[in-house]
Amino acid sequence: MREYLKHYINGEWIESTGTETMDVINPATEEVAGRISLGTLEDLDRAVKAARAAFPAFSKTSKEERVQLLENIADEYEKRKDDFIDAITEELGSPRSMSEKVHYEMGLNHFRETARLLKDFSFTERRGGTLIEKEAIGVSGLITPWNFPTNQTSTKIASAFAAGSTVVLKPAEITPFAAVILAEVFDAAGVPKGVFNLVNGTGEVIGDGISAHPDIDFVSFTGSAAVGQRVMENAAKTIKKVALELGGKSPLIILEDADLKEAAKIAVSNVVMNTGQVCTAATRTLVPKSMHDDFIEAVKAVLPKFPVGDPNDKHFVGPLVSKKQWDRVQGYIQKGIDEGAELVVGGLGKPEGLETGYYVKPTVFTNVKNDMVIAQEEIFGPVMSIITYETLDEALEIANDTEYGLAGYIVGKDPEAIKKAASNIRAGQIRINKAPSDFSAPFGGYKKSGIGREWGDYGINEYLEVKAVLGMPS
Ligand code: NAD
């Protein structure tokens, strides 16, 4: 049982000024795995003051010093590999192999890649007599969700440190363990006092407190669209810059020349990864009408390769993160049935033999119409909606008929069709076939999927202000 009852402020673990605590539930066992203290606005104020006090010196450190700092962090992070894997498996229910290969690795990649890109990052540009300088934005408030406990925190923090900005982090209260380990990593790596501060707590108190705080210059939020909107409204009162990474309802277009077995593998693995709790999940699978029946057979054949079960055993799909999330996903499965979509596999209830834990059946619906609720709203569970199309133009129209625009996927061979689809899907990231992740590529959404970009040099730019100095002597 983990007891994380202190906040990390100004380089020290200090008692909360409040007395409220919250249990953290292991979603695979439904048992209490730990406890955190719920911070107060006074705790947040202390953290902001520490970040403000540290800002003048940290923002003037050299690029080389910050590259070294990020490399030290990556080295210390690697030393805590087993701790990260244990924590993420406990708090999120992520299968151990995924906790390692996805969650642990993503966090590490952000620190390493940001350090690499920072070496060549230019903070000044000369245009005749004018000098353009990029300067650290100031104190940055970071609010992160529960579905990737190391990825979202690490990308934001690596970019902030690269830019010379100081931070106050509020991780999701239902998965707070990995962020505590991250704070310990920063401590061991020699991050100067006050540069990184961690305040645990609820969204209503600490999250809201961050977006409203007059001494925070920038808020970077990842989470749901509804809360993102609230963050933006709140931040408007003090005219703070806001970056939002929100939800998605991403299309996966299977082209007519695609290998169906391969396409089914890509589509299924995408939708069950992290038990479907992925903002970029390809939840709408667009299939040529003529290939529909064969595709359904291919999906049925591939699904057993992704077994659901205890995250400590060799399973690919763990439980959902919470009872709340389980109820939400059940509600959407019921909605799909009520709307008249055809259930191919899965459905309501828990998989056989998995009565304890928030397990769901990976579910595939076909004959889905794009205006159905299950095709328009983000479910955040392993639920695939298959929609048929007759021409690529029709597929693109369906793909873009959504209020979101985070990602798009294309599976097939014809380079012309691939290029046409890639340039016409209105989304921030397009993945063709099995293209590997690129930690230097910008990540973020069009439309209601968000504002701004994270990862790599685009991520660093979010934490910078731009100054033009006219008539600067050379
Ligand atoms: P959420 O919006 O409920 O919570 C996200 C964070 O915001 C948490 O830390 C929460 O405590 C905090 N929060 C809650 N109320 C707040 C308030 N009033 N003010 C400020 N902060 C507040 O989302 P979630 O349930 O944690 O995560 C799931 C959602 O996040 C999904 O919609 C998913 O698509 C989205 N998401 C997006 C990305 C992305 O990069 N685009 C990544 C992961 C998750």
TrEMBL record:
The keyword Lipid biosynthesis does not apply. GO terms for molecular function: aldehyde dehydrogenase (NAD+) activity. InterPro entries: Ald_DH/histidinol_DH, Ald_DH_C, Ald_DH_CS_CYS, Ald_DH_CS_GLU, Ald_DH_N, Aldehyde_DH_dom, Aldehyde_DH_NAD(P). Gene3D superfamilies: Aldehyde Dehydrogenase, Chain A, domain 1, Aldehyde Dehydrogenase, Chain A, domain 2. Keywords: Coiled coil, Oxidoreductase. PANTHER family: ALDEHYDE DEHYDROGENASE (PTHR42804), ALDEHYDE DEHYDROGENASE-RELATED (PTHR42804:SF1). Belongs to the aldehyde dehydrogenase family. This is Aldehyde dehydrogenase. The lineage of its organism: Bacteria, Bacillati, Bacillota, Bacilli, Bacillales.
